[in-house]
């Protein structure tokens, strides 16, 4: 056979038996004629599956034609009153747009978005009326991730439901100036605590968080904590949003775990914020290929019912071909023009398609809707998604951005930024939505056209409310009542308080060992969720594998290579550990879902997410911000912390700034403990704050930095200053003897350097030093700012002293501060230190070297503290300045090889 006999689009030779092939095709034609396109699709999918089993090497087709997945003859009956539902959908559309429009009135001008909800109204309303279950439903309710820019539509619906007032709509985006009626711009649970459940407007976080919410639902059910297996997660997303790495990066997780309790609804209005998503391409086709390749069930809703007749008459596929080859940029342009333009520039490109619409008026052509605006098409897709088992489903729904808002909005590149309407726009929109408001009412004040509500007793409103009653209550809604937890007792935190004797133990190991004890506490331990991004062995947490086991809904269906070992890798559907792989973004999403289970499901989980400290707040800081918005409660552990403790790893692993990044998150309580007993008290206080029931602000995340460098852990001192540990500073070693005095402040792994400096100052220079462990520079700063704010606003009252000032006001001498972080970490507290303050810090990039050499390079080690202390005393006139140079020479301070602070143990 020559090369000319090959089909260039085939993986094999040309048809070897055309007659036999024709018989198979005829058989398929007859099947479709007799039983419909849906049955034909089922047969073909079955044949493709069987061809794979027979190893025929037939490639799976990644995309289908640019038409609806569900054929019109296979659509289920629509169960509602479409006319009534259309009526109040129009009212919601009107009130949503007017909410944003009124927010632009003179003197306010706070912005907002009209066009996103306008494109998605039908997608939401089919769900609200027929699918989305509230929290009073026997299933426990669904979780809905509303698209952030569509929030005015949810407010408008809540207004018709009687949940929000006109005053609240008028205080849109005026949370403080409009108090107590102010409502936030987007879905912000922290700002509207009984309404929103999930923050989504940081685009890309909604998709990944929805995936891990669905996974957490299965986790709760598989572990026997709560049966929420029937609870469904719906995520409403934009087609432009799907370009975010987080939007697509975890799709395989949903497929691998068989999350058939998850549905993505992608509002494919073909536009992102500035213009087309894929002007030269087709975003729906691209996403279909991507999702199908990731293992998802894909349902396309491209065309409304008005196209059904045209497609049925398209006997030779000319219309189908036009649909397939027309790029999105043209589709956008069509909806910004008119029916005549569409006739000429779409149908007119082929005489056969032009003939299909020759009897249509331009108005009829203009009213050929996209599928995402057709209730019946959307209902069919949602029903199919709910009935599909074994895979997550994505619904790709084609819509028009700004739909119904008039020619100045629909499909325009600038429609996302358009916030208000002209008087003519308002009148046209009023007419389109059939709102009973007069011209005079609109002309009276075009900046404040009236909202519309027919009254609570209107039959349409009653129908609307009845739909929600049947589905289990209003949505969105957030609740905070949860089952009570029996918290661990003091004895359960005791192990780190004993110290390590002669054994060298890193704070990471002290924490991990304490956590092992907490996992065993009956009635509490099963609520702990260790979340590990493929570093369990690094952190010494592989000891959890045999007992707690790794969560996998599919179990462990292979023979483990380490099955004979004591610490064998064990997976189970009842496993407690969420082992998410090399995947910080997924781990943070898992943290968010588990950390808010107390609210979402009324069942508290205590996530312990442990990671390389450099890859926490730096890598996924936006996700932690969303977790804070969602009022997450849990622990994030930055292990292998510090710029110099992770020997040999180099620049990208050397964390010198994570406490600063953590300080930017108002819901993060950050600690840098030095000793195991400090870790113990901090964790106990955190658990009691979050779930003890008495703290005024339990909605926090505790961030602890812990280290892989081992040293001898001291036992907890008698009469230990627990208050100081929790507030941020306590004295761990008091200097004795006569001589000039200095105060040495350090945190984390830096405290042993301060102890070393204390000894050198006394031995070599006759200087007495006190050593303070600063467990939290950040919390000391927050306390200081609070004291300053009080004194600023209450000048008539006795001035308050910050906690730091109170602790140090009787301490003598200059204050020297160091840590394994950059200067700015220590500099946070400067203004509340009652004396001369000097800091050392590891500024600049980290690098691979020994700990001692790195610390000497950055001048943060024990001898560097000594020199800095001598400088402080010389500045105060208590020592001759020549002593400083003598000390630099004595310790060979410029020689990195002369460094002595630290050891070579605890390799990563």
UniProtKB/TrEMBL annotation:
Region (Disordered): 1-23
SUPFAM superfamilies: Thiamin diphosphate-binding fold (THDP-binding) (SSF52518), TK C-terminal domain-like (SSF52922)
Ranges for domain Transketolase-like C-terminal: 728-861
Enzyme Commission number(s) of this protein: 1.2.4.1
CDD domains: TPP_E1_EcPDC_like
Required cofactor names: Mg(2+); thiamine diphosphate
GO molecular function, one term: pyruvate dehydrogenase (acetyl-transferring) activity
Organism domain of life: Bacteria
Pyruvate dehydrogenase E1 component middle domain mapped to chain residues: 489-714
Binding site for Mg(2+): 239, 269, 271
InterPro entries associated with the record: PDC_E1_N, PDH/Transketolase, PDH_E1, PDH_E1_M, THDP-binding, Transketo_C/PFOR_II, Transketolase-like_C_2, Transketolase_N
Domain Transketolase N-terminal: from-to ranges: 144-306
Enzyme class: oxidoreductase
Known role: Component of the pyruvate dehydrogenase (PDH) complex, that catalyzes the overall conversion of pyruvate to acetyl-CoA and CO(2).
Protein name: Pyruvate dehydrogenase E1 component
Species this protein is from: Microbacterium aerolatum
Record lineage: Bacteria, Bacillati, Actinomycetota, Actinomycetes, Micrococcales
